[in-house]
Each structure stands twice: as C-alpha cells, then as structure tokens.
Amino acid sequence: HADLKSIIEDSFLKNQGVPIVMIGHSLGCPTIHNFITNPLILEELGMSVQDWENWKRAHIKCIVLVSPCLTGSPTAVKTMISGLALPFNILNPMTSRDLLRNFSGVMSVLPDPMIFPYPMIKTPTQSFTCQDEDLLKVLTMAGMTSSQLKAIQVNVLSQRINMRKAPEIETHVLTGCCADSNPKPNTIGKGMEMAFTYGKGLLNQQPTEIENESIIYSELKSNPIYKNNIINLVPNTPLSQMCGDYTVPYASLQFPRIYWSYQNEPLYFKQFTGSGVGHTKIFDNPLLFDYIFN
Q1: CB 185 within 8 A of CB 206
Q2: Alpha carbons 52 and 56: distance in angstroms, whole number
Q3: What pLDDT score was predicted for residue 241?
Q4: Cα separations (Å) of 80 from 19, 103, 191, 197?
Q5: For the chain, what percent of residues have pLDDT higher than 70?
Q6: What is the pLDDT of residue 86?
Q7: What is the pLDDT of residues 187-228, one digit of tens each?
Q8: pLDDT at site 88
Q9: Are the C-beta atoms of 188 and 215 separated by less than 8 Å?
Q10: Could you read off the pLDDT of 56-80 as tens digits, one per residue?
Q11: What would the mean pLDDT of 124-146 be, rounded to a whole number?
C-alpha cells in the first residue's frame, strides 16, 4: 500500500498536481477498493482518518472499475469442489482442483452470500448456500484440508464486510456481457454457471446438473424473500440481458450499485453489449477507451 501511495504521489507531481484516475480490471478492482476503503491501511501508512481522506481527495479524481470482481463468483466454489475443465482435457479436473485449492486468486473470488443468497450446492440429501458455515462444511465434505480452510477463513471470509463499503469517491463501473453464450452439457438456462447439483456426492465428483444465471435470477426476482437482492435493484434490464462476462456473474458486476445508498459522490455504470464482450475481450472494444479518455 505504501508503494501504491508513492506511485500515485509521483504521478500526481509529474502531472503538475492534477488528480489521477485509478483504473483496475477484474481482481485489480478489489485491490483499488481495498486501498481506498480499508481502515487497516491507515495504521500501515501512519495517517489519521482525516489526513487520509484529505490525501485521497487531493490526489485521486476518480476510480474506474472494469469487469470488477468485488463479490466473487459461484464457479469458484465448483472449482474448489471438483476442479476446472480445461480445453482439450489437457489436465484432469481433479488435478486442477488440487492445484487451485491453494491459489489465493481462486480463494479471493469465493462468492459473497449477500449477493448470492440462494442454495448453491445440492447433494441427494442436502442443500447448501455460500454462507460461511455452509461453505466451510461443503469444502470439508469435498476433502479440503484444515490448513486450506483456515486460509479461506483468514484471507477471504474475514474481508467480505470491507468490500461492501462505499469508496466515497467518484466511481465508474464498466462491464461486458455474455448474453450470446451457449449452455454447456448438463446445464440449464443462459449465462454463467450459478448453482451445482452433485448427484453422486461431493467427494471427487463432477456436478450432474448446473443451473445458469437466467434460472437463478428468475428465482431471485420472483421470490419475495430476495426482494432486496442486487438483481432487483437494476432498473429496466430484461432477464435475457442479465448475464455475466464469461468470468464474473452479472450480480457481482452490478454489486457497486449498492454504493448509491452510502455515498454522495457520483457513481456511473456502463455495460458494453454485443458478441464476445467478455471479461478480457472488453478491451478490444474501442468504446471502452472512448469512455475512459473522454
């Protein structure tokens, strides 16, 4: 954080005192958000709350979050249970699972139950949400070690609450959409994978059925217990367009909308649609750079 602060100050001086624009993509967005909002940084930097607020407002004009992954993705849970199917079967999913269980990047995108409150993992006898207790139980049943579970508790679950804090600085959220994607085998609905049925149990098994975004969002929109979910806060968006960007689900991309209730500073959203406007392909869209530079 001290290094990032120094880079910002150096850019500020080289730009003749003009406040800078911080741009992050994917997991770079939580890095920016954490830098802006986490009170633990103040101790590291030796600054008071007021000094920090004054520094931010003097040095940072706004933040731009491109394809932000602030509240995770359900596919991270599936990856930790049953691995990742790679193209051309170059690696057994269980081998990839054993490797990825130790990757901090995968841990960091475990889904936030505030955004994904529904039953996410189903077995022949039980259903589980991604609430902390359920999530740890599921991962234990799937064979994760105590040290791996401890790393998740310390590095991920304890940090969730901070991601919900408004940055209190002008914010632009730029996202893509994979509404044109085709379902994979054993999946129902359009969009990204959101809920997983393990008909043969959780240990060393693959899902027997996967529910995609259109199925889950339909439930979130129709069931009154989910009336305050982020999906129901997005205005005038048809269900068919509520699709993620091949990597981050739509609900997670739209999560920063909650900041409207907690900050006075401007908050802007822009979704780039069309064929292939995915998580990284969004940078191939010239309209993205037109937006940023204008």
Answers
A1: no
A2: 6
A3: 81
A4: 41, 10, 21, 14
A5: 96
A6: 73
A7: 888 888 999 999 999 989 999 999 999 999 999 999 999 988
A8: 65
A9: yes
A10: 999 999 999 999 999 999 999 999 9
A11: 94
Rounded distance between C-alpha atoms, residue 111 and residue 156, angstroms: 10
What per-residue confidence (pLDDT) applies to 40? 83
Instruction: Please spell the DSSP secondary structure of 234-265, one letter per residue.
Output: STT--GGG----SSS-HHHHTGGGGGGGT--S
Q: Six-digit token pair at 4? A: 């990032």
Could you give the strand order of the β-sheet that contains 20-25, starting from the edge strand earlier in sequence? 20-25, 60-66, 171-175, 267-271
Instruction: State the Cα angle at 111 between 201 and 275, rounded to 5°.
Output: 100
3-state DSSP assignment of residue 161: helix
What is the pLDDT at residue 71?
A: 93
Kind plus residue range of the DSSP H or E element containing 106: helix 104-107
Closest CA to 19 of 29, 8, 28, 27: 8
- Per-residue DSSP letters for 139-159? HHHTT--HHHHHHHHHHTGGG
Distance CA 180, CA 178 (A): 5
Spatial distance between the Cα atoms of 177 and 190, rounded to a whole number of angstroms: 12
pTM of full prediction above 0.85? yes
Strands 193-197, 209-212: pairing is antiparallel
The answer to whether residues 48 and 8 touch, using CB atoms and an 8 Å cutoff, is no
Retrieve residue 158's tokens: 């304890």
Q: What is the 3-state secondary structure (H, E, C) of 12-68?
A: HHHCCCCCEEEEEECCHHHHHHHHHHCCHHHHHHCCCHHHHHHHHHHHEEEEEEECC
The closest of 107, 141, 134, 105 to 118, measured between CA atoms, is 134
Residue 113 and residue 79: Cα distance in Å, rounded? 17
User: Are the CB atoms for 93 and 83 separated by under 8 Å?
Assistant: yes
Question: Could you give the strand order of the β-sheet that contains 127-128, starting from the edge strand earlier in sequence?
Answer: 127-128, 121-122, 193-197, 209-212, 187-188
Partners of 128 in the β-ladder: 121
